[in-house]
Structure formats: structure tokens, C-alpha cells
Design goal:
It contains 22 helices and 7 strands. With 606 residues, it is of the alpha/beta class. Helix 2 crosses helix 3, helix 4 packs antiparallel against helix 5 and helix 13 runs antiparallel to helix 18.
Length: 606
């Protein structure tokens, strides 16, 4: 009962945050990539049917196959369900789901924080993270980095629980024959199942070669079982025999799995219960990996924690954890199905050096995304998080080091595992990003998942104040900059910059602002009000962000149409890459979408 009462404050705060999120949901434009991601989600969902019926997924790298689609599919299914419940704009439906997932991730962060911090400090650290304008703004329209951030935290939270409650897995069966049988059956399951799936691409290629050889007159297994080979194309026969392989594989795996479960249930229920306790955390890890290929990093953190706290006895459980995670990743990532090993490493290579060809605005200069200065991340982290964060982090980090070196026992602060967690989760990755400079753009949204430790350490500083009243007062004080700035920037919170550079005004023309074009929704609202029926609107930039909010009679163009010459039309320009100086520079600006006096997009009338 005491534990339940301790959860009341965070539950109430998250419920209140959800209600606030619902109220301020409208007005937010669509993010640059959302349309493509929804399309990829639909392709991935359709793949379950085409794979079952044809042995094909119809997904390529050009369709974003290198991205894991697990959350995108969940998002699409959720949106389909909510459309019939909430009579709001379709874009807002997706944003609502994204925001809910963000809050779930915030809960997971609290669960992790409460392992090492006193309750009030854990709540303070959680609220500091949640109310950061950059995170809050991205929570709605970022269907890539925020879901990965949230499920990364969720995976860690449940995996830490799994490790703490871990019971050694071993076949404690008196009967040697049964024990050997179960060990042999388990080995057979692992080898055959992973072998059959890993070689899917090889099997398909082999079948295609055999069919081609049989059609050309050579005798092989295909020519012996198939008649009328010349009556259909090679592809048809290849798919026919490949589908036969897939069905036989499914029957074999289901039979072997059912037999294994039956024998474990009958002869080793403790082992089966121990495995069942691993399923949810492992499934979350696999799902997270199927959002972004960096998901296994969560597994690495969990492995380090397990070995630190449970020792070598945790290794069998970690192996099962990995196996289940791989299975869930495979099942939720259709692009992998046709060639699991080849396509996985293809995706890994693509994501490790993503070919983004745009220029990044940083401190007034434009850089290629692969040639950013070493100061890129330190500067952005310093000016896009609220001012109190780094003061609290530095104090907390010093305290963490002191506690790490202190040999005294402290029940509220597991000093060694906490320090090692911070080093592994944040310090090493951030140094790696700074030194090796992988492709980064749109500020630092790609590394959101390594930032929670900053707030964990800030919570350590908050915990030094022992009086609850003063602790609450400090928490409120350090929350104010983020809450005030977020309310002033609505609905563009994600472009937040702190007072160290003068806020958004100081960042104007020096750093990226509305890099996802969310201001097009407001621009569309203005054009809808003043444009005559059937007007043409030339949208320079991501026109697909304007279209969902435009009146149905408006003709939205993504490039200049010569037929517009001599006619009345409107031009909408995103103020990025100095487009306003290039596109119809002499035309009158009739409307400006701005925040705090800084223009984000303009509407012109030539």
C-alpha cells in the first residue's frame, strides 16, 4: 500500500500533463517526415498479408525499409482506431498518439530515477526532463526520435526490474535422461530456428537457381516434382516453391516450439516461469530495436547492470533476453523478412552514415552534416536546455563521483551502479558523438535517447536538500524557465533556445529554428481566410506540410507553374536556407508567421 501511495504524485502529474497536452494539441503543424513515415507504416502493415500470400514484402530501402517500423505501425493502427472516437484533424490524431507515448517514456524515466533517488528528487528530475521545451515540442510531431526515446526508457525500466527479480535459470531435473532431452531440444530449437530464418535470402536465391536450371533442361529436384515448367515464368515457379518452404518452416517451428513448451511445463516449470519473466522486457528491447537500429544499446546497458549486480549467474537469462529480443525485432520489421542478415547489416550501414545532403546552420555558418565542428553538440546542449540543468548536472556529477569513491553504505543511493550507468549511458556516447562526428542535422534530435542521464544526475543535486519544503521550492524554481518559455513559444516549443544566447531572437539566423516546417499550418490558416475560391498557392519548401491544412478548393503547387504568369496567386515560403531572398524577392509579404518577433514563414502575393 505504501508503494502505491508513493506512485500517486507522479501519476497525478502525468494525468495533468496529459490534460494540458490535449488542450494545446491543435495548432501544431505536421513534421517534415511524417507523411513519408505514415506511408512506410502502411507498406509495413500490408507486408504481413503479402508475405503470407505471396512470400514478398514489397518494401525497399527507397521506401524507408532501413528504418524499423514497429512504432510507426502501432501509430497507424492507433490512428485508425481513434479517428472514429475523436472528431479532430487527422494530423492531430497522430500527434496525440505521439504525445501519449512521450508521457509513457516519462513514466519510465521516473521508474528508473526512483531506483537511485529519493522520491521528491526523482519527481523533480522527471519534471525537469518532461518540461524541457525542446522535448515537449518534439513530443507531438516527431514520430522517429521521441518514440525511440520513450521505448528506450521503457525497455530499460522493465529490464532493470527483470534483473533485480532475476532467478538463476538451470535445468534442476533429477532425471538425467529428461534433462539431456530438454537440453538437446533447446539447442535444436535455437540452431534450427535461427538457421532457417537467417538463411531465408539464400534459400530464395537457391530456389530461383534450381528453377532456372530445371527450365533450361537440367535434372534436379525441381524438375522431378514440377510439371509443365515451360508453361509459366521463372518468377512464378520460384515464388511457388518459396511459399512451400515458408509454410513448411512455419509448421516445423510451431511444432518444435509446442513440444518444447509442453516438456518444460511438465518437467521444469521453474525454468519456464523464469523465462516467462523475461519475455516482456525482451519484447520491449526488440520493439525498440525495430524503431531504430541503435536499440541494442539498451540491451548493452542492461547487460552491464546485470553482470554488475547478479554476476555470471545472469548469463543464461541474458542469452534468453537476447534471443527473444531478436525474435520480436524480426517479427515487427517486415523489411528484414526476405533476407534477415543481409538487410539488417544493410540497414546498420545506412543508419551509421545516413546520406543527408543538406546544409546545417550552426552559429551563423552552414556546414555539411558530416563536417560539423567539434563544438556542435556541446554548444547546442548548452543553449537548448534550460539554464538550471547544467548547474544541477555539474553539482550532481561531483556528488556522484564522491559517493562512488565513498565506501560507506547508502541504501537510498546505489552509488557504484549509478555512476557506471551515467558513464555508459551518457558520458561515453556523447564523447563518441563529439569525437567521431557522425551525420547529425536538425540540431541534436537524433541523440535524445542518451540525454535522460543528464536529468538523473541533476536529481542527485536536488536530493542534497533534505527539507521537503525547500526541496519542493527548488524544484518549482528550476522548472519555471522551461514552463514559461514553453508557454511563450507555443506551438513552436521545439525551437527553444535559452537566455545564454538571447532566446529565439539571439538564435535567429545563427541556429536552426523551424527546421521541420511546422509553421506551415498557421500559414495555411491565413491563406484559407483570404484566398478567393480555387486560388493557386505555390509552396516553396515542403509543400506536403501545407496541403493537409489547405482548403480543398486551393491548388497547392510545390514548384512554379508557368501558367501562373499574369494571374493572381500566393507564395508560401519557409524561412530556411534564405529561400525568402531567392523566391519572388520583390513580391509583397502579406503575412508573417512569427514567434517572439522572429519570422518562421511568410506569405507573399506577387
Amino acid at each position: 500500500m505504501q508503494k502505491i501511495k508513493q506512485k500517486y504524485p507522479i501519476t497525478i502529474l502525468l494525468a495533468l500533463s496529459f490534460l494540458i497536452g490535449i488542450v494545446i494539441l491543435p495548432g501544431r503543424g505536421e513534421g517534415w517526415d511524417e507523411f513519408k513515415l505514415h506511408k512506410y507504416a502502411t507498406l509495413s502493415l500490408n507486408a504481413y498479408q503479402t508475405w503470407a500470400l505471396q512470400g514478398k514484402t514489397n518494401i525497399t530501402l527507397d521506401d524507408l525499409g532501413g528504418y524499423g517500423p514497429s512504432f510507426l505501425m502501432l501509430d497507424e493502427l492507433g490512428a485508425h482506431l481513434l479517428r472514429s472516437i475523436f472528431p479532430i484533424h487527422e494530423v492531430d490524431i497522430y500527434h496525440l498518439i505521439n504525445f501519449i507515448v512521450y508521457l509513457v517514456g516519462i513514466w519510465a524515466f521516473y521508474d528508473i530515477s526512483a531506483r537511485w533517488l529519493p522520491r521528491t528528487s526523482a519527481i523533480g528530475a522527471t519534471l525537469l526532463l518532461m518540461t524541457q521545451p525542446v522535448f515537449w515540442g518534439h513530443a507531438y510531431m516527431n514520430s522517429k526520435d521521441i518514440p525511440f526515446f520513450a521505448f528506450f526508457l521503457l525497455s530499460l525500466a522493465f529490464s532493470f526490474r527483470m534483473v533485480d527479480a532475476y532467478k538463476p535459470i538451470h535445468l534442476d531435473i533429477p532425471n538425467d535422461r529428461i534433462r539431456r532431452t530438454l537440453a538437446l531440444l533447446t539447442t535444436l530449437w535455437l540452431v534450427s530456428v535461427f538457421g532457417l530464418f537467417a538463411t531465408t535470402g539464400f534459400v530464395h536465391a537457391t530456389i530461383a537457381d534450381l528453377v532456372q536450371a530445371a527450365i533450361s533442361g537440367k535434372t534436379n529436384i525441381i524438375s522431378m516434382v514440377a510439371s509443365h515448367l515451360n508453361s509459366a515464368s521463372t518468377d512464378i515457379y520460384t515464388q511457388k516453391f518459396f511459399m512451400l518452404f515458408l509454410r513448411m518452416r512455419a509448421i516445423y517451428i510451431l511444432t518444435l516450439t509446442a513440444l518444447s513448451l509442453y516438456l518444460y511445463c511438465r518437467h521444469s516449470r521453474p525454468t519456464l516461469r523464469a523465462v516467462l519473466a523475461i519475455i516482456l522486457p525482451a519484447a520491449l528491447l526488440g520493439f525498440t530495436t525495430s524503431i531504430r537500429i541503435l536499440g541494442p544499446f539498451a540491451g548493452l546497458i542492461v547487460t552491464a547492470y546485470a553482470l554488475r549486480t547478479q554476476g555470471k549467474k545472469s548469463i543464461p537469462g541474458l542469452m534468453i533476453y537476447a534471443v527473444i529480443g531478436i525474435m520480436v525485432m524480426y517479427l515487427t520489421w517486415p523489411y528484414l523478412w526476405e533476407n534477415p542478415v543481409g538487410h539488417f547489416f544493410e540497414s546498420l550501414k545506412l543508419m551509421s552514415s545516413y546520406p543527408w545532403n543538406g546544409l546545417v546552420l550552426f552559429n551563423g555558418q552552414r556546414y555539411a552534416s558530416t563536417e560539423l565542428p567539434y563544438s556542435y553538440l556541446p554548444v547546442l546542449l548548452g543553449i537548448q536546455l534550460t539554464e538550471p540543468i547544467w548547474v544541477l548536472f555539474l553539482i550532481g556529477f561531483v556528488l556522484t563521483i564522491i559517493k562512488y569513491r565513498d565506501n560507506k553504505t547508502d541504501e537510498t543511493y546505489n552509488k557504484r551502479t549509478f555512476f557506471e550507468l551515467i558513464i555508459l549511458w551518457f558520458v561515453i556516447p556523447i564523447l563518441g558523438f563529439i569525437v567521431f562526428r557522425p551525420t547529425l542535422y536538425d540540431n541534436f534530435r537524433q541523440i535524445f535517447f542518451i540525454m535522460p542521464p543528464i536529468f538523473l544526475v541533476a536529481g542527485v543535486a536536488l536530493s542534497k536538500i533534505k527539507q521537503p519544503v525547500w526541496q519542493v521550492a527548488l524544484v518549482v524554481l528550476v522548472l519555471l524557465p522551461g514552463i514559461v518559455a514553453g508557454s511563450q513559444l507555443y506551438p513552436y516549443e521545439y525551437i527553444y533556445y535559452n537566455h545564454l544566447i538571447g532566446g529565439v531572437k539571439g538564435a535567429h539566423e545563427r541556429f536552426e529554428l523551424d527546421y521541420w516546417g511546422t509553421s506551415y499550418r498557421e500559414a495555411a490558416g491565413y491563406v484559407n481566410k483570404i484566398a478567393p475560391a480555387n486560388s493557386s498557392v505555390w509552396v516553396e519548401g515542403p509543400a506536403h506540410l501545407f496541403g493537409p491544412f489547405a482548403r480543398v478548393d486551393l491548388k497547392v503547387l510545390d514548384a512554379f507553374d508557368p501558367s501562373l504568369t499574369g494571374r493572381e496567386y500566393y507564395v508560401v515560403i519557409l524561412l530556411r536556407h534564405e529561400l525568402e531572398k531567392i523566391i519572388v524577392p520583390d513580391a509583397e509579404t502579406i503575412y508573417t508567421v512569427s514567434i517572439d518577433g522572429v519570422p518562421l514563414a511568410i506569405v507573399k502575393k506577387p
